[in-house]
Amino acid sequence: MTEKTLDPLAKLLQEVFGYTDFREGQRETIESVLRNKRTLAILPTSSGKSLCYQLASYLLPGQTIIVTPLISLMEDQVSRLRQLGEKRVTAIHSQMSFQTRQRIFSQFQQYKFVFVSPELLVQDWFKEQAKKGKISLVVVDEAHCISQWGIDFRPDYEWIPEFLKELDSSVKVLGLTATATQKVMEDIESTLFHQQACHLIKQSSDRQNIAYQVVETEDKTAYLKQFLSQHPGPGIIYFSSKKEAERICTLLQEETELAVSYYHGDLSNQERLVVQQQFLHQQLHVLCATSAFGMGIHKEDVRFVIHYHLPSSVEAYVQEAGRSGRDGKQSLALLLYRPQDEHIHYHLLEQLIKEKEGMAYLLKQPEETWQQYLPKLSSLQQKWLTGYTHQRYSKETLMAGLEQKISERTRHIQDMLTYIHLTTCRRKYLLAYFDSESEGQVSICCDHCGLEDLELETVPVFPRSPLEFSKDWQETLKKVFNQRE
Amino acid sequence: MTDDINIYILSLFHPKNKQRSSSVYQILRGKKTASTLSFCLFHHLWSGFQLFPYLSVEAYEQRLAELKAKGYLVADEADGKYLLLSQAGQACLLEHPFWMAFSKEVDHFSYGVAGPLFLERLLFLSQVISELSYQSKQYEPITSEEEQLFWVKQWLAKTKVSKEGLISNFYTEWQKLLEQLADSQRQRLVSLLTGHHKIGTTYYQLQQMYHWSEFQRIAYKIYDCQQIIHLIKTSEDFPLFASVLASIPKQTISKSAQLTYNYVEQGLDSVSIQRLRQIKPSTVQDHLIEAAVLLDDFSFDACLDKQVVLQLETYEKKQPQIIEWQFKQVQGFDESISFLEVRLYQILKVKQYDRENFRPTS
To answer: Is the CB of residue B145 less than 8 Å away from at least one CB of chain A?
Structure first.
């Protein structure tokens, strides 16, 4: 590549995004998208994956469709692009009203960026619009969903290849993910790209400024309080239940001096954004969150990510832990473990096995009798059955897929437990897990390599009490609407 | 110690008008039938409509048992399925004025969904206008929902006043609104506001700060929305806020019932409507009851014969407790009167009474 062709990228980077340098992997990904038909980019968390397709899109003539697994993530990306001054951006998902969709479709071709949820890709009305539009690029964000969440969680992702087949052959495809083992990578290549050659960009998943620690304790809250008295944040504590996030949040509010709030899927869109803004703008020390918080949220100075519960997989753990230290400063990924924490995951696994067995029983019954079983089926079983009746897979494929899913889930729990009980370097384990290599010697690595020198910079936080606004409500109101006497 | 949910359930009962406990349950679950809607109107239970959509019969019965054990609710002597509020129950409610006000003033049927959506729009619009007042274009909106973003754009485009006028008028409406609210509500609403250099708070955060129960958090939010809506609807001081409210459809009559009622307005009788719409006579009856309960301008004249009204007025003199009328007893008085006519007459009279006594009907 010559200097002449490189220049437009750097120029655009500065003009549109305000950055002077690319992060590692970004330039390679953009260049690959511009040159090749198929690209798979595996870039670590906080590497700026979104910028790759955004910048590439500006150098392509047509529209970019971005398939995104979560509505919240989709809406966040739309907001971020709008803040960059891009008005030709929209999102379409199944929770939108018919009128809103109609309005978007009436001006579909005017959008440069269209974010869609995967389930829409099989809808005829969407396919019609997509064919009418001038699509240059389809981005599959969080491409590991094809493999990791597979048949039970995101069957919708399996519809992407079918959708791609219906588009013009010149349309480029970019798969983006932060967490892909060799197996997942192969899954993506075979499912998304039909085994056709794709250009692979893979950056090391080593986040050198993140130290890893596991603490085994019977009293997690006592440990948390002690930890927070030394490291006030900003930090995120992840929970696997909304109730626990709320409970610990209340406890920390009452028993520490810190400003703590919680964030989970029961909050409305507006409530989530308000809490998010409080956290981003240094009004909260700690956020107690479920996995609903994270994807697409960019707070640079998160000093620690604590897992209060056992994550469901190493992939999920690395994704969430990677939300610390985006600014490159020393950060910590701490996992609190109490023996038997894994029971909840085994319990969920048992449920899945029961559902699979129930499904196997149903499939053996004459099809005309299935109707009577429908009310008794779980939502997951109903999804499986719908897939089968829509001829997306055979009985054999479905059952084999479920078997595979169960063994993968079992392996995920075991891998997490292996990580917890390691007696050797945790970073090396994580790097090996993702077939990645270290980028060099890390001075503050993990609890087994020694964390004596670990210091987490304290970021000033300025909590705002709701009461301070309400004491002199007239003054507050005047300030809000810039009214002077 | 009686929890908030029990206090609220208690507030739904009356010391004189006995109520069937299972009907109250259907209202709390939100069963939208002609019968529950009439019951809601007769006993003024709009605050409870669909307030607990997932409440199980067992949990509800357990709560009633607790209230009975404390002597707050007593079973009617003639029929144990009917309950009355006892003197002890009344005394208990007097110690909880918020729940009495909530029960009396909230219309969860019409605004259960529309109220919170209205408040979210009002808060979002407040942020937009606050940023506009500082000429700031670079800010993070407190919504990322495409529908809300589109709505605000449209709302601003339709506003005919100048930018300065809009900011000033909007500020004045907030000021007038807050002036008319109680201190505690004012505190809540001011803290919710997000604007230039001010990030608001959430009801969840207020719950934690004030140590509310989960139900209190839900109820305060509903009550705040209801109070604002009430002020906006009963005053001409809030044209901008009223236009926000107008953008949100409140729950009202079902489409099917509306269609039936349209035919009535066109002068068609029940038999013709049944034939035209291919529906059962009982369905037409249900549709008309629904329309009579929910439509402010329902034409009783079109459905109730003058002679029937005169007959029922005579019966009313003998049995003035209209809401306790049993159809069989009315038939004993005049067997030519139909169930629909009796029910429509009851609705007509209850609505008249509510209007005269300034009680909101849904």
So the answer is: yes
> Which amino acid is present at A445?
C
Q: Pick the residue of B137, B145, B248 with the most A CBs within 10 A to test the interface with A by mutation.
A: B145
Distance between CA atoms of residues B144 and A81, nearest Å: 12
Determine phi and psi for A239, rounding to 5 degrees. Answer: -130, 155
Mutate to test the interface with B, among A482, A484, A485 (most CBs of B within 10 A): A482
Residue A39 tokens, joined: 């690209």
| pLDDT value of position A4 | 46
Q: Domain A205-475 maps to which CATH number in 3.40.50.12710, 3.40.50.300, 3.40.50.1010, 3.10.310.10?
A: 3.40.50.300
Q: What's the CA dihedral at A133, A136, A142, A144 to 10 degrees?
A: 110
Cβ atoms within 10 A of the Cβ of B175, count? 15
- Whether the CB-CB separation of B292 and B300 falls below 8 Å is answered with yes
Structure confidence at residue B250 (pLDDT): 82
Chain-chain contact of B204 with A267 (C-beta, under 8 angstroms) = yes
Residue A5 pLDDT greater than 70, yes or no = no
For the whole model, what pTM was predicted? 0.84
Distance CA A467, CA A477 (A): 14
Residues 6+ apart with CB under 8 A from B60: B9, B25, B28
Domains A3-202 and A205-475 share a fold: yes
CA atoms of A460 and A233, how far apart (whole Å): 9
- Residues 158..187 of B with a Cβ closer than 8 Å to A: which? 167-168, 170-171, 174-175, 178, 186-187
ipTM at complex level: 0.85
Task: Look at residue A150 in the predicted model and tell me its pLDDT.
Answer: 40
Beta carbons within 8 Å of A222's beta carbon, 6+ residues apart: none
Per-window interface: A 412-471 vs B, CB < 8 A:
464-467, 469-470
**3-class state of residue A216 by DSSP:** strand
User: Chain A within 8 Å of B122 (Cβ-Cβ)?
Assistant: no
